[in-house]
Design a protein that fits this description.
Helix content: 40-55%
Number of strands: 5
Distance between the termini: 64 Å
Structural class: alpha+beta
Oligomer: single chain
Strand content: 5-15%
Largest sheet: 5 strands, antiparallel
Pfam families: HTH_31 (PF13560), MLTR_LBD (PF17765)
Radius of gyration: 23 Å
Number of domains: 2
CATH topology of the largest domain: Beta-Lactamase
Shape: elongated
Protein name: Helix-turn-helix transcriptional regulator
Length: 284
């Protein structure tokens, strides 16, 4: 049994301790720690993941990085833009009572039903294409007000991009997006350098909606077998809560708001004069 002793200046294992527990030399571990994973065997990677108590996302990312390092540098390449299949678009529209937004791998909004557009009005301008959600988070001041925990949402977006970069570092669109965000957002630049990876496929989000006020929604991310680069994100509120009442109010507005033909970018309207707004609702 290996025992490590002595006073610690910082918590955690020393580099030589990690190397010993992983069954490699300190020099070899130092090389890996500096990002040189070329030729590292699967057994060493799994041993390192166990030693560092990596979660599934971190372990997957480690293997992706090692695979990319072994393949060597690749020329940046453009991937086809993600598209929402027609059958999936019809499915989203059929889920009229559930706010649903379809997102591409980099945060491109590729579809939504009417309630999804109403729940995230900033992403759907009256004219032009929907906004990229990742750009919106970091480059649009409205995002800081819209998301109660903006930092949490933004950090999860960075982690998602890190996972994509590990799988396909030659993705030209990813490189362009990362460069743009790193140039214009000091928060993104700092968090990107941290190399943190997590999978955030379900959970809760607290938002300050410009019409119905504050509400908390639970979300689930659904994969599309016909289009792996597109995910459907659905949102609901816990029954019997003020958030559920706010979402019901949003549903009633969507049902009574005229929609345009073709691609709909309608947003909820303010209550009619004389109609009471829910307590705590800010002015839109």
């Amino acid at each position: 049994m290996t025992v490590f002793g002595g006073e610690r200046r910082v918590p955690g294992l020393r580099r030589e301790e990690v190397a010993q527990l992983a069954g490699v030399s300190t020099a070899y571990y130092t090389r890996m720690e500096r990002g040189n994973l070329r030729g590292v065997s699967e057994s060493v990677l799994r041993s390192l993941a166990r030693t560092l108590k990596m979660n599934d996302a971190e372990t997957e990312h480690l293997f992706d990085l090692a695979r990319a390092a072994s393949q060597g540098a690749r020329t940046p390449r453009a991937r086809p833009r993600p598209r929402l299949p027609q059958a999936a678009a019809r499915l989203i529209d059929a889920m009229g009572d559930v706010p649903t937004v379809a997102l591409g791998r980099l945060g491109d909004v590729v579809g939504a039903n009417a309630l999804g557009r109403a729940l995230f009005p900033h992403l759907f301008p009256e004219t032009g294409e929907p906004l990229n959600h990742t750009r919106y988070l970091f480059l649009d001041d409205r995002a800081h007000e819209f998301y109660t925990d903006w930092e949490g949402s933004a950090r999860h977006a960075v982690s998602a991009l890190r996972l994509i970069a590990g799988r396909d570092p030659s993705d030209a669109a990813l490189m362009t997006l990362v460069g743009e965000l790193a140039t214009h957002s000091p928060e993104f630049r700092t968090w990107w350098a941290g190399h943190t990876v997590t999978v955030h496929a379900a959970g809760t989000k607290a938002i300050r909606h410009p019409v119905v006020g504050e509400l908390t929604v639970t979300f689930e991310t659904l994969a599309l077998g016909s289009s792996p680069d597109v995910k459907l994100v659905t949102y609901l509120a816990e029954p019997g809560t003020p958030s559920a009442d706010a979402l019901d109010l949003l549903r009633s507005w969507v049902a009574t708001t005229p929609t345009s033909t073709g691609r709909e970018h309608s947003t909820p309207q303010s209550p009619a004069r004389g109609q009471a707004k829910p307590e705590g609702t800010p002015n839109p």
